[in-house]
TrEMBL record:
This is Peroxidase. One of its GO terms (molecular function) is heme binding. Heme b binds at H195. Binds 1 heme b (iron(II)-protoporphyrin IX) group per subunit. Binds 2 calcium ions per subunit. It comes from Lolium multiflorum (Italian ryegrass). Residues 148-168 are annotated as: Disordered. GO terms for biological process: hydrogen peroxide catabolic process; response to oxidative stress. The active site is at H68. Disulfide bonds join C37-C117, C70-C75, C123-C316, C202-C227. Ca(2+) 1 binds at D69, V72, G74, D76, S78, E90. Its cofactor is heme b; Ca(2+).
Amino acid sequence: MGLLFARSFVLVTALLVLCLLLPCHAKLSTKFYAKTCPNVESIVRAVMAPAVAAEPRMGASIIRLFFHDCFVNGCDASILLDDTPTLTGEKNAGANANSVRGYEVIDAIKTRVEAACKATVSCADIVALAARDAVNLLRGPTWKVPLGRKDSRTASQSAANANLPGPGSSAASLVAAFAAKGLSAREMTALSGAHTVGRVRCLFFRGRIYGEPNINATFAAARQRTCPQTGGDSNLAPFDDQTPDTFDNAYYTNLVAQRGLMHSDQELFNGGSQDGLVRKYSGNAKIFAGDFAKAMVKMGGLLPAAGTPTEVRLNCRMLN
């Protein structure tokens, strides 16, 4: 008995040491709230459906919110934290200020979830579920969302500025940025397909429509009508002007036709390593939908580093 106890003690000690060296997290599960909040998915859907119906662009915004959360220290709802005298959040980072939106929708979901299951469901899980529903409500695929994330008690504006790819990114820098998160070049190309919905400000694509050679002339001229060379920075244009509010594979069809709106979009089809995959997705919506769903699950598995203080926030905008 003494020998067995000693071996158990050594094993537990080894595991604790390992957790100090590597991220150790409880495994996410699609049944995480089966007993504690069994209706959480229907509650999220009940808020998302009218929000997207009223403004389809909101669906794209929630998908973007999820991406911008997960890419900064994991999917921990840190992007939802408001600035305070003692905490500088991520909302005003360069890639988030005046571009990430949908916070009020997450607030509305959280209020209903708290009424049904107090202090149980994390804001990070709500964002993950809302992003899945956003895709599906825009006629895209659906998938089972692994749950069990916790909300970070910290945020990092500097990490947001450093980790989020910008509209002028090259193909190589995109591959590197996603690889740093454990995501492959194929997964990066699939996740970029989220740009099949949503709008972007003139400020972020002006350089492409006036200064790049690999752009369809008719497409460039159409975009120039709402994005002058000076002024109009906040004027919006759809990523996909064919089916702007439908989650389909038209994004890739546009790239093949040199109708990518931002420089970083067209970089995926510009004589590089992703050309073949872009052609595949442009010709087969089913393959794209499957790859996108799997990549969203994988990205949703990015979690905060071991030792990060976490909780289930009662209000997504502030610490408990």
